[in-house]
Specification:
The structure holds 3 protein chains of 3 kinds. Chain B is mostly helical. Chain B contains 11 helices and 2 strands; from the N terminus they run ααββααααααααα. Chain B has one domain. A two-stranded antiparallel ribbon of chain B has the order 1-2. The two termini of chain B are 37 Å apart. Chain C has 2 domains: 242 residues, Rossmann fold (3-Layer(aba) Sandwich), CATH 3.40.50.300; 71 residues, Alpha-Beta Plaits, CATH 3.30.70. Chain C has 12 helices and 13 strands. Chain C starts with a strand and ends in a 10-residue tail after the last helix. Classes of the chains: A mainly alpha, B mainly alpha, C alpha/beta. Chains in contact: A-B, A-C, B-C. Chains B and C meet through helix 1 of B and helix 1 of C.
Chain lengths: 263, 275, 339
């Protein structure tokens, strides 16, 4: 683990050097993700100009849930963005060879190699939204709440990462799984809003099949409305651990099925 | 006539190649498509909750059914006018393979355009038709009568065709700018987000306050998806319809002119740089 | 060192009919067939040996190399390198090998070259002192100094290849796999790279497996070659033996004072040679003649030529390995005894 962190530091240092070479790229990327979020927030604001509450949730509560959903998503985006390249290009072109000839875990190697600063667009929006709406809602988190926040963000991030790992591992069999990853990743949009607005089927899917609701709505709802904090954090931990385990199994099977590409 | 035949032969090959290309990359297309459909359903549930919260049947002049037609039609229109022109031109400029297009006896923009026609044919049959049928069935069930009007569909098709050409030339211009831009992908995302915002893909332009709405509806972005969708929904009638169609055409001509000018400039630059 | 027994690798390949209808058909129904990329390979390589691994395109060279490096899992058969099974103890195994794929780079594209080395230092846990010694040695052999501070994307192909070889040798691997290390390079650069490979082999006693299409690589570097075709081994032995066995054709290049005299050279009639053993071709400024030295002694042939025509210059060339390999590829020579 210590070796891993040391390596990670080296990789990040390299990546920051890389970033200095392409400053404009970074600004463009981060800005575009920021604009995307701002558009959505504006949308919610315009709606709330006409209505007092949405399915029983007030404007700032919706903002809080929305902002909270961006935190695990943004952290995952920041750290593991190279998985998209695995799904779209690295396996298909046979470039995965490189990772298999190195004496470190290929999954870690792939993840470490890229640090996606575009994600700051999402992360900053998320942090501002959560803090601003907490103030407006006069939320005063105690020790227990802070623990739930930390746990659910860490394990929520793990849910995102696991879904990405599992989807991009499919590329080892079908060469290119970017579109599958796209579908699963975009289904996280459902988790940006209170899941009480959805029908039962959708609610079940985003809670237990692709459990994105645990990355945002459930913890946010606990922080807003109270409830059993241990149960909330525990469920998130359990579900993310299970899905992470499944994704690692798929990934490992995928590696032994890897066929490389003609020279 | 003879000239038309030769055009058909030359560019027909591009259309054919476009269809094959679409089939080869069908998976990635349907990935995006299903992703967008998810987005539509998220919107559906949000609007349902909104209408339930207000207790009214009308929200800023839109009924729930209007809203659903708007959401689905806007997303589908997004697919119909979507174009890879930026990326294909930009990457060809970067790696120098653009000269391969220059040495063939075809127009650069037309060859890309016809190549894309192929995929558009596929999108219309595989995506547009089924979604429209679904939408009209939904309208019929909730309203209790057939709201579909053939005239509106035809007007929509005319308007969306102009939109597509407009989108194509707009993207082509972005592509030519590759000479200056490093991160084509980043700028692409930025461009998409801006277009989404200004064209009313997330928030209908009608929801914006007075002056902003006026300005937005004159910008070329409104001509992209907003105009055809409004036409189909019978929100634009009579003079307003004619005016907005004309506005689309004016913008199209402006962008064609701009892109031709930029291409001349790019050609000179290629000649100087030697590709 | 390297022990391979009856190694096999099969792939499933989808077949697609050409054209639009073929594309549509593949939407509905996919046809697949099994391709045997490597079909029962058995070989042994000693420590410190440089083995030339050759064969035509699609013969299964790359697939075999990828199994040897642990990238691909074999369908069946056994392989053991350094006492380890590549695809099983992959992480441990790859610490002791170096891999260069000529068509790909493992260097960090946008950063100065030296940064790639400092990352690799961490990946392979190389100690600072060892790292500095190693860099010094590689620098001396591969002349990295002049471009070590430049971003990789600005390097020429030759510089990039040198940098890639250095990257794969940084951790002093026991086995080095070079997959077409001279592809696309000019003659002078190729020569430098060959010298470097040879130095590394002598200095570190590195076992080297080299695949290449350039037979000059083989002639300068390898004492032993393994040739495969359609996934099967067709030759395994020394280069010398190969030349001795199959290389009886000699080429004589004759420059004539009067080019028209070519018609006076008729050794086929004189010595009774048939078409397999004799061949003559007119070049721009000379005549190239090939004959089987087992049928006619070289001095006899030379005497005959000198007597028949007015010669300005004459050269006899050794067996050309390229010719031999071409013949073996076409199965004109049956190398049965050598396998």
């Amino acid at each position: 683990m210590i070796r891993f962190l040391k390596l990670y530091r080296v990789f990040v240092a390299q990546f920051i050097k890389n970033l200095m070479e392409y400053r404009i790229d970074f600004l463009t990327g981060a800005t575009s993700f920021l604009i995307g979020q701002v558009t959505n927030i504006l949308f919610i604001t315009i709606i709330f100009n006409q209505i007092p509450s949405l399915a029983g949730w007030k404007y700032y509560e919706i903002m809080f849930i929305y902002g909270y959903s961006l935190l695990p998503k943004g952290i995952d985006h920041l750290l593991t963005d190279n998985l998209w390249n695995v799904a779209y290009f690295i396996v298909r072109k046979g470039d995965f060879d490189k990772y298999l000839t190195r004496p470190i875990n290929p999954l870690m190697h792939v993840i470490m190699e890229k640090f996606q600063f575009d994600a700051l667009g999402e992360l900053i929006t998320g942090i501002i939204l959560v803090i601003y709406s907490s103030i407006k809602l006069k939320l005063t988190p105690g020790f227990g709440e802070v623990a739930v926040i930390l746990i659910t963000i860490v394990f929520g991030t793990l849910i995102f990462t696991s879904v990405k790992i599992a989807c991009c591992a499919i590329a080892f069999w079908i060469k290119r799984s970017g579109s599958i990853l796209q579908i699963f990743y975009m289904s996280s949009d459902f988790a940006r809003y209170p899941i009480t607005i959805y029908n039962k089927g959708v609610r079940f899917i985003i809670s237990y099949v692709i459990p994105f609701a645990f990355t945002s709505f459930y913890p946010a709802a606990y922080l807003l409305r109270g409830g059993n904090g241990i149960l909330c954090a525990g469920k998130t931990m359990l579900i993310s651990t299970v899905i992470f385990g499944i994704s690692i199994i798929i990934w490992n099977r995928g590696i032994s099925a890897y066929e490389s590409a003609g020279s | 006539m003879k000239q038309f035949k030769s055009i058909k032969r030359t560019y027909g090959a591009f259309v054919n190649a476009g269809i094959q290309d679409f089939i080869a990359y069908k998976a990635s297309f349907f990935g995006f498509f299903i992703g967008e459909i998810f987005m539509c359903f998220v919107m559906y549930f949000i609007w349902k909750a909104v209408y339930a919260s207000t207790g009214r049947t009308d929200f800023m002049g839109f009924s729930m059914i209007d809203m659903m037609v708007y959401v689905f039609l806007t997303h589908i229109s997004g697919f119909l006018i979507q174009t890879d022109a930026t990326f294909s031109i930009a990457s060809e400029i970067k790696d120098g393979s653009i000269i391969m297009r220059m040495i063939k006896p075809v127009n650069v923009d037309l060859s890309i355009l016809f190549f894309e026609f192929g995929s558009k044919i596929m999108i219309i049959t595989c995506v547009f038709v089924p979604v429209m049928v679904g939408l009209e069935i939904y309208r019929y069930i909730t309203l209790g009568y057939v709201a579909f009007k053939l005239v509106r569909l035809i007007l929509f098709m005319i308007s969306i065709s102009i939109s597509y050409l407009l989108s194509f030339y707009l993207n082509l211009i972005f592509g030519y700018l590759a000479f200056y831009l490093l991160n084509i992908w980043g700028f692409g995302v930025l461009k998409e987000e801006l277009i989404k915002f200004f064209s009313g893909a997330v928030i209908p332009i009608a929801f914006f306050p007075g002056v902003v709405r006026k300005v937005f509806s004159f910008l070329p972005f409104a001509s992209l998806t907003y105009t055809p969708v409004m036409i189909y929904m019978e929100k634009y009638n009579g003079m307003k319809l004619i005016f907005n169609l004309s506005l689309q055409i004016v913008w199209l001509l402006v962008f064609i002119g701009l892109s031709r000018g930029l291409w001349k400039w790019a050609e000179k630059r290629l000649a100087v740089q030697g590709g | 060192m390297i022990e391979v027994k009856n190694l096999k690798k099969e792939f499933q390949k989808t077949i697609k009919d050409p054209g639009l209808s073929g594309a549509i058909k593949s939407l509905v129904h996919k046809k697949t067939e099994t391709v045997k990329a490597v079909d029962g390979l058995t070989m042994h390589v000693d420590e410190g040996e440089i083995l030339g691994f050759i064969g035509p395109n699609g013969a299964g060279k790359s697939t075999a190399i990828k199994m040897l490096t642990g990238i691909l899992t074999p369908t069946s058969g056994t392989l053991e390198i350094n006492g380890q099974i590549p695809y099983k103890n992959r992480k441990e195994y790859v610490k002791e090998i170096g891999v260069v794929f000529g068509q790909r780079t493992q260097l960090w594209w946008d950063l100065p070259l030296v940064e790639t080395y400092s990352v690799l230092k961490e990946i392979y846990c190389i100690e600072e002192k060892k790292f500095r010694e190693r860099m010094e040695f590689l620098n001396e052999v591969l002349d990295l100094q002049e471009f070590i501070k430049s971003p990789v994307r600005t390097l020429s192909l030759g510089q990039r290849m040198r940098a890639d070889i250095a990257a794969s040798m940084l951790h002093s691997p026991k086995v080095l796999f070079l997959d077409e290390p001279t592809i696309g390079l000019d003659v002078v650069v190729k020569d430098n790279i060959r010298k470097a490979i040879s130095k590394i082999n002598k200095n570190d006693k590195t076992t080297i497996i080299l695949t290449t299409h350039d037979l000059n690589d083989i002639e300068t570097l390898c004492e032993r070659i393994v040739m495969i075709d359609k996934g099967k081994m067709v030759y395994d032995g020394s280069l010398y033996h190969m030349k001795e066995t199959y290389g009886k054709m000699r080429e004589v290049i004759i420059a004539l004072n009067n080019p028209d005299e070519i018609k006076n050279i008729k050794p086929d009639k004189k010595f009774g040679l048939n078409a397999d053993d004799y061949e003559i071709e007119k070049k721009a400024n000379s005549v190239s003649m090939k004959f089987n030295s087992a049928k006619v002694e070289i001095p006899d042939m030379l005497n005959y030529i000198l007597a028949s025509v007015n010669v300005k210059d004459i050269t006899v060339k050794d067996a050309d390995i390229e010719e031999i390999i071409k013949k073996i590829y076409k199965s004109e020579v049956n190398p049965g005894e050598a396998v």
